[in-house]
Amino acid sequence: MKNSAEAQRIIAIGEAVLTAAIWASSFVLVKTGLQDVGPLTIAGFRYFLAFLVLTPFLFRPNTPRPTITKKLWGRLFLIGVSAYTIGNGALFWGLKFLPATTVSFLMSLSPLTILFASIFWLRELPTKWQVAGVLISIAGSVLFFSSGLQLGEPTGILIVFLALIAFMFFGILGREITRVRQLDTLTLTAVPLGIGGGLLFIVALPLEGIPILTAQSLGVMFWLAVVNTALAYILYNHSLQNLTALEMNMLLNLSPLVTAVLAWWILEERLSLTKIIGMLIVVIGVGFVQWESNQQNN
User: Fold this and answer.
1) Which of 75, 152, 238, 276 is the most buried (most CB within 10 A)?
2) What are phi and psi of 97, to 5 degrees?
3) pLDDT per residue over 234-289, tens digit each?
4) Helices (DSSP H) in the chain: which residue ranges?
5) Contact 227/22 with Cβ under 8 angstroms?
6) Under 8 Å between Cβ of 153 and 98
Protein backbone atom coordinates (compact mmCIF):
# COMPACT_ATOMS: atom_id res chain seq x y z
CA MET A 1 0.00 0.00 0.00
CA LYS A 2 2.84 2.37 0.87
CA ASN A 3 4.59 1.73 -2.46
CA SER A 4 1.31 2.30 -4.29
CA ALA A 5 0.76 5.62 -2.52
CA GLU A 6 4.32 6.71 -3.29
CA ALA A 7 3.86 5.79 -6.95
CA GLN A 8 0.63 7.79 -7.13
CA ARG A 9 2.39 10.75 -5.54
CA ILE A 10 5.25 10.59 -8.06
CA ILE A 11 2.73 10.47 -10.91
CA ALA A 12 0.88 13.44 -9.40
CA ILE A 13 4.11 15.47 -9.18
CA GLY A 14 4.82 14.62 -12.81
CA GLU A 15 1.30 15.77 -13.76
CA ALA A 16 1.75 19.04 -11.86
CA VAL A 17 5.13 19.75 -13.48
CA LEU A 18 3.65 18.98 -16.91
CA THR A 19 0.71 21.31 -16.16
CA ALA A 20 3.11 24.12 -15.20
CA ALA A 21 5.10 23.58 -18.40
CA ILE A 22 1.94 23.51 -20.55
CA TRP A 23 0.57 26.73 -19.02
CA ALA A 24 3.99 28.37 -19.28
CA SER A 25 4.02 27.61 -23.02
CA SER A 26 0.71 29.47 -23.52
CA PHE A 27 2.43 32.88 -23.54
CA VAL A 28 4.91 31.75 -26.19
CA LEU A 29 2.22 30.11 -28.34
CA VAL A 30 -0.04 33.17 -28.19
CA LYS A 31 2.88 35.39 -29.14
CA THR A 32 3.40 33.16 -32.20
CA GLY A 33 -0.31 33.18 -33.10
CA LEU A 34 -0.47 36.98 -32.92
CA GLN A 35 1.51 37.14 -36.17
CA ASP A 36 -1.68 36.17 -38.05
CA VAL A 37 -4.73 36.59 -35.76
CA GLY A 38 -5.93 39.26 -33.33
CA PRO A 39 -5.52 38.62 -29.58
CA LEU A 40 -9.25 38.63 -28.76
CA THR A 41 -9.99 36.19 -31.59
CA ILE A 42 -7.32 33.77 -30.36
CA ALA A 43 -8.61 33.95 -26.79
CA GLY A 44 -12.28 33.54 -27.77
CA PHE A 45 -11.53 30.58 -30.02
CA ARG A 46 -9.34 28.92 -27.39
CA TYR A 47 -11.81 29.06 -24.53
CA PHE A 48 -15.00 28.36 -26.43
CA LEU A 49 -13.44 25.35 -28.17
CA ALA A 50 -12.19 24.11 -24.79
CA PHE A 51 -15.78 24.38 -23.54
CA LEU A 52 -16.96 22.26 -26.50
CA VAL A 53 -14.26 19.66 -25.72
CA LEU A 54 -15.37 19.42 -22.08
CA THR A 55 -19.14 19.50 -22.76
CA PRO A 56 -19.56 15.74 -23.47
CA PHE A 57 -18.09 14.97 -20.04
CA LEU A 58 -20.82 17.07 -18.43
CA PHE A 59 -23.48 14.73 -19.85
CA ARG A 60 -21.91 11.34 -19.20
CA PRO A 61 -24.44 8.59 -18.43
CA ASN A 62 -25.04 7.79 -14.75
CA THR A 63 -23.38 11.03 -13.71
CA PRO A 64 -25.38 13.18 -11.25
CA ARG A 65 -26.02 16.68 -12.59
CA PRO A 66 -25.85 19.57 -10.12
CA THR A 67 -28.79 21.88 -9.59
CA ILE A 68 -27.73 25.39 -10.61
CA THR A 69 -29.85 28.14 -9.07
CA LYS A 70 -30.36 31.58 -10.65
CA LYS A 71 -27.92 33.06 -8.15
CA LEU A 72 -25.32 30.43 -9.01
CA TRP A 73 -25.85 31.06 -12.74
CA GLY A 74 -25.11 34.71 -12.01
CA ARG A 75 -21.89 33.73 -10.25
CA LEU A 76 -20.85 31.49 -13.17
CA PHE A 77 -21.57 34.33 -15.59
CA LEU A 78 -19.37 36.71 -13.57
CA ILE A 79 -16.61 34.09 -13.36
CA GLY A 80 -16.72 33.57 -17.13
CA VAL A 81 -16.62 37.29 -17.88
CA SER A 82 -13.89 38.11 -15.35
CA ALA A 83 -11.63 35.15 -16.16
CA TYR A 84 -12.02 34.75 -19.91
CA THR A 85 -13.75 37.75 -21.53
CA ILE A 86 -11.84 40.43 -19.60
CA GLY A 87 -8.95 38.60 -17.90
CA ASN A 88 -7.61 36.49 -20.75
CA GLY A 89 -8.77 38.98 -23.37
CA ALA A 90 -6.58 41.64 -21.73
CA LEU A 91 -3.79 39.12 -21.16
CA PHE A 92 -3.62 38.16 -24.85
CA TRP A 93 -3.89 41.84 -25.83
CA GLY A 94 -0.99 42.69 -23.53
CA LEU A 95 1.19 40.16 -25.37
CA LYS A 96 1.09 42.50 -28.39
CA PHE A 97 3.15 45.00 -26.40
CA LEU A 98 5.24 42.89 -24.01
CA PRO A 99 7.63 39.93 -24.24
CA ALA A 100 6.10 36.58 -23.31
CA THR A 101 8.40 36.26 -20.27
CA THR A 102 7.36 39.66 -18.89
CA VAL A 103 3.65 38.81 -19.19
CA SER A 104 4.17 35.43 -17.50
CA PHE A 105 6.14 37.19 -14.75
CA LEU A 106 3.39 39.76 -14.17
CA MET A 107 0.74 37.04 -14.00
CA SER A 108 2.71 35.30 -11.24
CA LEU A 109 1.68 38.25 -9.04
CA SER A 110 -1.97 37.13 -9.21
CA PRO A 111 -1.96 35.49 -5.72
CA LEU A 112 -0.97 38.85 -4.25
CA THR A 113 -3.97 40.66 -5.74
CA ILE A 114 -6.24 37.87 -4.48
CA LEU A 115 -4.70 38.25 -1.01
CA PHE A 116 -5.57 41.97 -0.97
CA ALA A 117 -9.09 41.30 -2.24
CA SER A 118 -9.60 38.65 0.45
CA ILE A 119 -8.95 41.28 3.13
CA PHE A 120 -11.83 43.50 2.01
CA TRP A 121 -14.18 40.96 0.40
CA LEU A 122 -13.84 37.83 2.52
CA ARG A 123 -12.56 39.57 5.69
CA GLU A 124 -9.48 37.31 5.74
CA LEU A 125 -6.63 39.24 7.38
CA PRO A 126 -3.05 38.45 6.25
CA THR A 127 -0.47 36.99 8.62
CA LYS A 128 2.97 38.48 9.14
CA TRP A 129 4.46 35.90 6.77
CA GLN A 130 2.00 36.86 4.04
CA VAL A 131 2.89 40.52 4.52
CA ALA A 132 6.57 39.55 4.27
CA GLY A 133 5.81 37.63 1.08
CA VAL A 134 4.12 40.69 -0.45
CA LEU A 135 7.09 42.92 0.40
CA ILE A 136 9.55 40.38 -1.02
CA SER A 137 7.53 40.14 -4.23
CA ILE A 138 7.39 43.93 -4.57
CA ALA A 139 11.17 44.07 -4.16
CA GLY A 140 11.59 41.43 -6.86
CA SER A 141 9.27 43.33 -9.19
CA VAL A 142 11.23 46.56 -8.69
CA LEU A 143 14.45 44.69 -9.49
CA PHE A 144 12.90 43.05 -12.59
CA PHE A 145 11.93 46.44 -14.07
CA SER A 146 14.93 48.39 -12.70
CA SER A 147 16.60 48.54 -16.13
CA GLY A 148 13.72 50.63 -17.48
CA LEU A 149 10.90 50.06 -19.96
CA GLN A 150 10.97 49.85 -23.74
CA LEU A 151 8.64 51.75 -26.06
CA GLY A 152 5.09 50.39 -25.74
CA GLU A 153 5.78 48.43 -22.55
CA PRO A 154 3.95 50.86 -20.17
CA THR A 155 0.79 50.35 -22.25
CA GLY A 156 1.23 46.58 -22.12
CA ILE A 157 1.78 46.63 -18.34
CA LEU A 158 -1.43 48.62 -17.80
CA ILE A 159 -3.37 46.13 -19.96
CA VAL A 160 -1.93 43.14 -18.07
CA PHE A 161 -2.79 44.78 -14.75
CA LEU A 162 -6.38 44.97 -15.99
CA ALA A 163 -6.10 41.20 -16.50
CA LEU A 164 -4.74 40.81 -12.95
CA ILE A 165 -7.73 42.70 -11.51
CA ALA A 166 -10.11 40.53 -13.52
CA PHE A 167 -8.37 37.35 -12.34
CA MET A 168 -8.63 38.66 -8.79
CA PHE A 169 -12.42 38.70 -9.12
CA PHE A 170 -12.27 35.25 -10.75
CA GLY A 171 -10.30 33.87 -7.80
CA ILE A 172 -12.59 35.39 -5.17
CA LEU A 173 -15.82 34.32 -6.91
CA GLY A 174 -14.52 30.81 -7.48
CA ARG A 175 -13.42 30.55 -3.87
CA GLU A 176 -16.87 31.58 -2.66
CA ILE A 177 -18.34 28.63 -4.59
CA THR A 178 -15.72 25.99 -3.82
CA ARG A 179 -15.44 26.62 -0.10
CA VAL A 180 -19.10 25.64 0.36
CA ARG A 181 -18.89 22.92 -2.36
CA GLN A 182 -21.80 24.25 -4.42
CA LEU A 183 -20.53 22.75 -7.70
CA ASP A 184 -18.28 19.98 -8.97
CA THR A 185 -14.95 20.99 -10.52
CA LEU A 186 -15.88 20.02 -14.10
CA THR A 187 -19.04 22.17 -14.14
CA LEU A 188 -17.23 25.07 -12.47
CA THR A 189 -14.56 24.83 -15.19
CA ALA A 190 -16.64 24.17 -18.31
CA VAL A 191 -19.61 26.53 -17.92
CA PRO A 192 -17.58 29.75 -17.40
CA LEU A 193 -15.38 28.73 -20.34
CA GLY A 194 -18.46 28.62 -22.58
CA ILE A 195 -19.83 31.92 -21.28
CA GLY A 196 -16.56 33.87 -21.31
CA GLY A 197 -15.22 32.39 -24.54
CA GLY A 198 -18.51 32.93 -26.36
CA LEU A 199 -18.76 36.57 -25.27
CA LEU A 200 -15.15 37.17 -26.30
CA PHE A 201 -15.95 35.85 -29.79
CA ILE A 202 -18.84 38.32 -30.04
CA VAL A 203 -16.58 41.19 -28.93
CA ALA A 204 -13.68 40.16 -31.20
CA LEU A 205 -15.66 40.06 -34.45
CA PRO A 206 -16.49 43.79 -34.76
CA LEU A 207 -13.12 44.87 -33.29
CA GLU A 208 -10.79 42.56 -35.23
CA GLY A 209 -12.95 41.46 -38.15
CA ILE A 210 -13.14 38.02 -39.73
CA PRO A 211 -9.65 36.51 -39.33
CA ILE A 212 -7.63 35.22 -42.27
CA LEU A 213 -6.52 31.92 -40.80
CA THR A 214 -3.25 30.26 -41.72
CA ALA A 215 -2.14 26.73 -40.97
CA GLN A 216 0.08 28.10 -38.19
CA SER A 217 -2.64 30.18 -36.52
CA LEU A 218 -5.18 27.33 -36.71
CA GLY A 219 -2.65 24.92 -35.23
CA VAL A 220 -1.82 27.33 -32.40
CA MET A 221 -5.49 27.94 -31.52
CA PHE A 222 -6.44 24.25 -31.57
CA TRP A 223 -3.39 23.36 -29.48
CA LEU A 224 -4.20 26.09 -26.95
CA ALA A 225 -7.81 24.91 -26.67
CA VAL A 226 -7.26 21.15 -26.47
CA VAL A 227 -3.88 20.86 -24.74
CA ASN A 228 -3.30 24.11 -22.82
CA THR A 229 -6.90 24.39 -21.59
CA ALA A 230 -8.91 21.14 -21.62
CA LEU A 231 -6.04 18.66 -21.03
CA ALA A 232 -4.14 20.93 -18.63
CA TYR A 233 -7.19 21.37 -16.38
CA ILE A 234 -7.72 17.59 -16.32
CA LEU A 235 -4.08 17.04 -15.31
CA TYR A 236 -4.34 19.82 -12.74
CA ASN A 237 -7.48 18.47 -11.09
CA HIS A 238 -6.23 14.86 -11.12
CA SER A 239 -2.90 15.74 -9.53
CA LEU A 240 -4.71 17.57 -6.70
CA GLN A 241 -6.06 14.18 -5.57
CA ASN A 242 -2.55 13.32 -4.31
CA LEU A 243 -0.90 16.72 -3.78
CA THR A 244 -1.71 19.43 -1.30
CA ALA A 245 -2.73 22.85 -2.61
CA LEU A 246 0.60 24.19 -1.29
CA GLU A 247 2.63 21.68 -3.28
CA MET A 248 0.63 22.41 -6.43
CA ASN A 249 0.95 26.18 -6.07
CA MET A 250 4.70 26.00 -5.52
CA LEU A 251 5.13 23.90 -8.67
CA LEU A 252 2.94 26.28 -10.70
CA ASN A 253 5.06 29.19 -9.44
CA LEU A 254 7.81 27.82 -11.69
CA SER A 255 5.79 28.77 -14.80
CA PRO A 256 7.51 32.17 -15.40
CA LEU A 257 10.90 30.45 -15.36
CA VAL A 258 9.70 27.83 -17.86
CA THR A 259 8.25 30.62 -20.04
CA ALA A 260 11.63 32.38 -19.96
CA VAL A 261 13.39 29.24 -21.22
CA LEU A 262 10.80 28.61 -23.96
CA ALA A 263 10.81 32.28 -25.04
CA TRP A 264 14.61 32.23 -25.21
CA TRP A 265 14.51 29.04 -27.32
CA ILE A 266 11.56 29.80 -29.64
CA LEU A 267 11.18 33.60 -29.71
CA GLU A 268 14.84 34.46 -29.03
CA GLU A 269 13.87 36.67 -26.08
CA ARG A 270 16.80 37.42 -23.80
CA LEU A 271 16.79 38.11 -20.06
CA SER A 272 19.47 39.94 -18.12
CA LEU A 273 20.86 38.47 -14.91
CA THR A 274 19.08 41.24 -12.97
CA LYS A 275 15.69 40.23 -14.41
CA ILE A 276 16.33 36.55 -13.64
CA ILE A 277 17.22 37.38 -10.01
CA GLY A 278 14.13 39.62 -9.72
CA MET A 279 11.95 36.81 -11.06
CA LEU A 280 13.37 34.33 -8.53
CA ILE A 281 12.75 36.80 -5.66
CA VAL A 282 9.11 37.16 -6.73
CA VAL A 283 8.69 33.36 -6.85
CA ILE A 284 9.99 33.19 -3.27
CA GLY A 285 7.66 35.99 -2.12
CA VAL A 286 4.59 34.43 -3.72
CA GLY A 287 5.62 31.13 -2.17
CA PHE A 288 5.49 32.73 1.29
CA VAL A 289 1.97 34.04 0.63
CA GLN A 290 0.64 30.72 -0.66
CA TRP A 291 2.37 28.65 2.03
CA GLU A 292 0.78 30.69 4.79
CA SER A 293 -2.62 30.61 3.04
CA ASN A 294 -2.54 26.84 2.96
CA GLN A 295 -1.38 26.63 6.58
CA GLN A 296 -4.53 28.55 7.54
CA ASN A 297 -6.78 26.31 5.44
CA ASN A 298 -5.37 23.01 6.80
Assistant:
1) 75
2) -110, -20
3) 787 777 667 765 566 667 777 788 888 888 888 888 878 888 888 888 778 777 76
4) 2-33, 39-58, 70-80, 89-94, 100-107, 110-121, 128-144, 153-178, 185-208, 215-225, 232-239, 245-252, 255-262, 273-297
5) yes
6) yes
